[in-house]
Amino acid sequence: MRIVRHKLGRSHFMDSGSISRIPVAPLPSSASRRLAAVGRDPINLHRALAHAPALLAPLLDLIHALRFDAQVSRSLRELMICRIAQLEGSEYELAHHLPMAASSGLDSEQVRSIVGWREASCFSAPQRAVLGYAEHIGAGAPRDDEALDACFSPVEQTELTVTGATYLAIARMLRALDVRIDDLLA
User: Fold this and answer.
1) CATH of residue 143
2) What range defines the domain where residue 138 resides?
């Protein structure tokens, strides 16, 4: 065993071959099929949740619906996810989603400015509405209904709500299980 220190100051003992605080379980074939269907390889999050295949399957379905079936643009959803991850201190989600945010169309200034978005001039009105809504979902900040209504339909607001709440829950799962950032991203 070795002591692992996180950027956020936490430390714990972790077996050098482990990916979380609990032993790895084999990935269920149903999860492998779901991931293969969308061209994804399993990541440590999937492996950590493999102990509960009946819960992993619908979570994957939800994540994939958010990723592939939503009307809200991918860049706005990634902006929501990254701000939620920052609020939760989720290094794992940031390691996965900051590159996705960049590849979805956010420029490097926007990616760097997410944490200080209120002072940054690089965000559009819809982006600012998403960032404010992320802070409402993730930190209980007041919700700006006027900004949301001006930028998003009820369908889009619902998608943003489910996106934010889902990734808030995932950040907390990652923290509770102490899931290690995938080696390819570390």
Assistant:
1) 1.20.1290.10
2) 74-176
Q: Model confidence over 22-62: pLDDT tens digits?
A: 988 899 998 999 999 999 999 999 999 999 999 999 999 99
Measuring CA to CA, which residue among 113, 101, 116, 168 is closest to residue 137? 168
For the chain, how many structural domains are there in total?
1
Separation of alpha carbons 50 and 57, rounded Å: 9
Task: For 106-124, write each residue's pLDDT tens digit.
Answer: 999 999 999 999 999 999 9
